[in-house]
Write a structure and sequence with these properties.
Length: 678
């Protein structure tokens, strides 16, 4: 039986990458075995000053009469840094250490095949985390706990956290039929969220879970606790948590540091929330809707049609539109430019509402269809709604980068569902100077439209760049940002060697004028409050390197080596590293250094201290504000939480994207504010 299970795992590595499962346990469908049963599923989330820690604890039961290897898949949260895994198999406790991917896999297989307790946590591209545990004894149980960190940016005054569970969809039904999957929890499902914000929070929401959630506001007006609980159920629905900051908060600069000792490098998270009076735009423009109707969109098409219908219904008469759909190839649903008259809009809505999902995904052809028949005398923007899971035609990210650089348009992307290809969407939007947002089927769709309103109806900052002077900062992305939209919060990670006084400076063009926003602050010589920042910084570097590789700007082999080094040095799971779980004796026998054990000890100590203290305000421009104006009011109860009637005031919804401005006038990137030293 050991041989059969070993073969099944080998098949798993080949097949799981083709599918887009949500959370659940797996066994091959023809094996005659039952999947592991999930008896309990508990989630604890702490959101504190710009980043979230998520702890997931699950109990598995093996219903079969023989020892088995457990396979478990979990959708990969965007920018999620898997940093800690612990499992209990019988009486043995195993912990994780990150190694290069091939070495981690070899160690796991050797220990597993020897009958020793072992586990492996790996990452399948942008899609999911995959876990393997062995052995789970016949009719026995296994307990697994994993922890991941992720940064959370405020958008138009609204914070959003998603715990992803829903199946992402697939273009390959055969891959789905290969597996027997169990996503049902027999016992209890609980989600506990603690929000600690240094800024006042006026409302929180858990759409779709209101009847199951209790919300408690503590003494501080930015401190909330949310508890959701239910007996049993299926892990097929995302848990989305919104929180809205008070209106008219000031524009601000916040710096969250970590420096373990005066002779050790420091790490920082820099959060810039511009408070600017950006003028509304009222000129007409052209908009091309590019809609993904491939098979992977089957479970998401209702959200697509709902959002696009509302957008079309709120367009202005001076605007024009076209609609392109695509699956295996592009189709012109509305081929010629149509003025946004009531009659034309209603005719287009009727066509959108009867769209059906089928076929493979040729995103490149869809974009090429959108880029045809452009009017050089009018600003043009592309509204792209897709999951980005392109698998037909041109699929190389650098080809998308090249295509967008050849045209004077901007792409505003909306990524639907889990396992969506956000790295590809990032390449497309970065090349065009646009932006993208993720949308869950359990999102407040109306709220996402309202969130976008402030961006799409107002002018933006152009050619923005950020620079730090006085203290040498390094190890982050270029200082060039490009465009900054209304309500957008900028989040940077970086490193520094020595503490001291520093000046952060944001330069940009606004309505043809050069603008400079700056403030002075002090980088500390020692600050041990937030050791998790080192992992977040490392993941930020990984994503920046992979973006440049995908755009054809960096050599793939050099990026792979750098990503592998970052993963091992800072103990994060990446596409080049995995986490192997062994007993302490097995690590010692193999001579594997316990780097992650040391990091976890530092993080747990700091988290214990923070949990007993009020939330800390890290604003550094209190005495001399970097931004002269207050942050724009999001109005009507704060964007995502306004009533349905608030949509009427949007006027254009998403269709007002940057009307009246020439889209995407390219400027050369300025000199990088930070060096690329890792």
């Amino acid at each position: 039986m050991k041989i059969m299970i070993h073969v099944c795992l080998g098949v798993a590595a080949a097949v799981m990458s083709l599918s887009a499962f949500g959370a659940g346990t797996l066994v091959p469908a023809q094996s005659g075995l039952q999947p592991m049963q999930i008896t309990d599923h508990a989630v604890e989330v702490v959101i504190n000053n710009g980043f979230a820690k998520t702890t997931v604890t699950q109990t598995f039961h093996n219903p079969n009469g023989q020892d088995l290897e457990a396979l478990y898949a979990f959708p990969l949260p965007k920018s999620g840094s898997l940093s800690e895994v612990t499992a209990t198999l019988g009486e043995k406790v195993i912990n994780g250490e990150v190694l290069p991917k091939d070495k981690a896999k070899a160690v796991y297989e050797e220990e597993r095949d020897s009958g020793n307790e072992a586990g492996l946590a790996s990452q399948d591209s942008y899609k999911r985390f995959e876990f393997a545990l062995s052995p789970v004894r016949a009719h026995g149980t296994a307990l697994i706990t994993f922890v991941y960190y992720q940064p959370l940016a405020i958008d138009t005054g609204v914070g959003r956290y998603v715990y992803p569970l829903e199946e992402g969809g697939t273009d390959d039904p055969a891959a789905m039929s290969f597996w027997t999957r169990n996503e049902t929890v027999a016992g209890r499902i609980t989600v506990d969220v603690e929000l600690k914000s240094a800024w006042p929070v006026t409302d929180v929401r858990t759409p779709g879970f209101e009847g199951l959630s209790t919300i408690k506001q503590l003494e501080h007006d930015g401190h909330y606790q949310i508890h959701m609980e239910r007996d049993g159920g299926v892990l097929n629905k995302d848990f989305v948590f919104y929180y809205r900051l008070a209106d008219n908060l000031p524009g601000r600069v916040e710096v969250i540091p970590y420096k373990p000792a005066s002779d050790k490098p420091g790490t920082f998270m820099l959060v810039v929330t511009p408070g600017l009076d950006l003028k509304p735009l009222d000129n007409g423009a052209d908009y091309v809707f590019v809609l993904d109707t491939s098979g992977s969109m089957a479970g998401k098409l209702h959200a697509l049609t709902e959002g696009v219908t509302k957008v079309l219904g709120k367009m202005r008469p001076q605007d024009r539109f076209r609609i392109v759909t695509f699956e295996s190839r592009a189709h012109l649903l509305v081929g010629s430019w149509q003025a946004a008259t009531a009659e034309n809009v209603q005719r287009a809505i009727g066509k959108v509402q009867v769209l059906q999902a089928s076929g493979s995904t040729n995103l490149h052809d869809g974009l090429r269809g959108a880029l045809s028949n452009l009017d050089g005398d009018r600003a043009t923007s592309i509204i792209l709604v897709t999951d980005g899971v392109t698998n037909t035609g041109v699929i190389a990210p650098r080809a998308f980068h090249k295509l967008m650089k050849e045209h004077d348009v901007r792409v505003f992307g909306f990524l639907m569902g889990n396992s969506s290809n956000w790295p590809l969407m990032r390449v497309i939007c970065d090349a065009s100077g646009g932006f993208y947002a993720s949308v869950s089927n359990n999102d407040d769709i109306l709220g996402r439209i309202l969130q976008a309103k402030g961006k799409v109806l107002h002018e933006c900052l152009h050619d923005a760049s950020l620079r730090i002077r006085g203290v040498k900062a390094y190890g982050t992305t270029d200082g060039y940002i490009g465009k900054v939209y209304r309500g957008q919060q900028l989040v940077f990670f970086g490193r520094y060697d020595k503490g001291g006084d520093a000046t952060v400076e944001l330069k940009a063009r606004l309505t043809g004028d050069d603008k400079v926003y700056s403030t002075t602050f002090t980088f500390p010589t020692v600050d041990t409050d937030n050791p998790e920042l080192e992992r977040l910084w490392a993941l930020h570097r990984v994503e920046a390197l992979e973006l440049r590789r995908d755009a054809g700007l960096e050599d793939a082999s050099e990026v792979e080596a750098a990503v592998r080094d970052l993963g091992v040095n800072y103990q994060i799971v990446t596409n080049e590293t995995s986490m192997v779980m062994l007993t302490g004796d097995a690590f010692a026998r193999r001579g594997i250094q316990r780097r992650n054990q040391e990091r976890i000890a530092r993080e747990h100590k700091a988290q214990a201290v923070r949990s007993s203290q009020p939330v800390k305000n890290y604003r550094v421009d209190k005495t001399k504000s970097a931004f002269r104006h207050s942050a724009p009011s999001i109005g009507n109860g704060g964007g995502a939480f306004g009533p349905v009637s608030g949509l009427i005031s949007v006027c254009l919804g998403l269709a007002g994207i940057m009307g009246g401005h020439r889209a995407g006038r390219r400027s050369q990137h300025g000199r990088a504010a930070f060096s690329r030293r890792s």
